[in-house]
Specification:
- The chain has 343 residues and is mainly α.
- It has a domain of 70 residues: Alpha Horseshoe (Serine Threonine Protein Phosphatase 5, Tetratricopeptide repeat), CATH 1.25.40.
- Helices cover 52% and strands 3% of the residues.
């Protein structure tokens, strides 16, 4: 589109010194070659606002993509955070929700959110860009959360709140819950943001991990603390019966084990194989964890095959842990008897 006054084109920055009649002329797009399509995409990717402006004045359709299924000019500019170019393309009626032709099917909003380009995300949202998921069930909010971009995530959550109750419900509690993912990455600020938005603090991901179990498994102490402070279930971990205490004990994460024990996590919980936190810590050779668990009252329960923590520690050559377990067993003879009985 162009403005005309007295039969002449007006430049975008032209000043009007007096009242007059203006005409808004809608022009059809010019025929465009593949080379010209690639030229606009390259200019958009490089952030050359002046060059993009010149190409759009042909006028050229900003939504055309190369025959190889390349990303659109708007996608390329959004991914790299070129706000000026994004604004020019949107003014030229670029489709803010156009998906890539390839299998990932991301939109410009996905790209900008993943890389934390807050101003670009804001511009796309103002242009009514969709924030729905791609075929991998990842929304822009998922990508911002996975990368730890707090302000982008906050802006997207505000957009979701404006869409009514179904938007947050789908993204926060849906088929791919956000909180376990943010917890696995250890992005504590994102975790707190999602909790403020009423994300379910105990909802498992498709692999069966709760947020607390995910944070414990990957050693994120601050994330574990934030979830415990929010009241996350300290003993619920995965579909296989693994608890946060078990996964932290298996990895030897002393600080997390300490936090969980202080939160009164149960050390006697067994998974589907009959393994306890003490058993897995003994097998892996994590002496400090074994001592902490024994001090907290853990007992040596045998697994489903009748193996005790003492026997597996001896089998694996962890002599110091075996001695520690023997000392612990002498303090609690009844626990010793139970641990030697097949279950």
């Amino acid at each position: 589109q162009r403005l005309h006054q007295n039969g002449s084109d007006l430049e975008d920055d032209a000043e009007l010194s007096a009242p007059g009649n203006l005409q808004l002329v809608l022009l059809p797009f010019a025929g465009t070659s593949q080379e010209q399509v690639k030229e606009l995409r390259a200019a958009s990717a490089s952030g050359s606002g002046f060059k993009v402006e010149g190409i759009l004045q042909r006028p050229q359709d900003p939504n055309l993509v190369g025959s190889g299924g390349d990303a659109s000019p708007l996608f390329a500019a959004s991914q790299r955070g070129h706000l000026e170019v994004v604004q020019k393309l949107l003014e030229a009626k670029a489709d803010a929700s156009r998906r890539r032709a390839r299998e990932d099917s991301d939109t410009p909003l996905h790209a900008a959110s993943a890389d934390g380009h807050l101003e670009v995300v804001s511009a796309l949202l103002e242009a009514r860009a969709e924030s729905k998921s791609n075929p991998l069930r990842l929304t822009p909010l998922h990508l911002a959360s996975a990368s730890g971009h707090v302000e982008v995530a906050r802006l997207l959550l505000q957009r979701m709140a404006g869409e009514g109750p179904e938007g947050p419900a789908q993204d926060l509690q849906g088929l791919l819950p956000l909180l376990p993912m943010a917890s696995a990455y250890g992005h504590t600020a994102i975790i707190r943001l999602l909790l403020e938005a009423k994300a379910d603090k105990d909802l498992s991901d498709p692999l069966g991990l709760t947020p607390l179990c995910a944070a414990a498994q990957f050693g994120h102490v601050d994330a574990v603390r934030a979830l415990l402070e929010a009241g996350a279930d300290r003993d619920h971990g995965s579909h296989r019966g693994l608890t946060p205490l078990q996964v932290a004990s298996a990895q030897g994460y002393v600080a997390i084990v300490k936090l969980l024990l202080q939160a009164r996590a149960c050390s006697e919980k067994r998974d589907s194989r009959g393994l306890t936190a003490l058993w897995v810590a003994s097998q892996k050779g994590h002496g400090d964890v074994v001592r902490m668990l024994l001090d907290a009252g853990a007992t040596d329960q045998a697994n489903n095959l009748g193996q005790s923590a003492l026997s597996v520690a001896s089998q694996e050559g962890h002599a110091e842990i075996a001695r520690c377990l023997v000392t612990g067993l002498r303090r609690a003879p009844e626990a010793t008897l139970r641990s030697r009985s097949p279950r």
